[in-house]
Amino acid sequence: MRQRRRPSPVFALAALLLVAAAACSDNEEGTADGTAVSTSLSPATEVTSPGTDDTGGSPTSGGEGTGSTGTASTEQPALENAVWNVVLVADDDTLAVRQQADPAAAKVGDLAWNATGVTTTGGSGSHDGQPWYEVRQGSTAGWVNAAFLTPQMTSAEFAADPEPEQVVADLAQVLADRGDLRPLLSAHGLYIDDRPRLLRFTTDDLDGILTDTTVRSWNGPACGEPCLSATFADYIAVPFVDTRDDTDTVVTLDDLASGPSNRIPESIIRPELAGFHHVTVFDPGDDPAVGGLDWATWYVYLDREPDGWKVVALSNDVWAP
Question: Is 141's pLDDT higher than 90?
Answer without folding.
Answer: yes
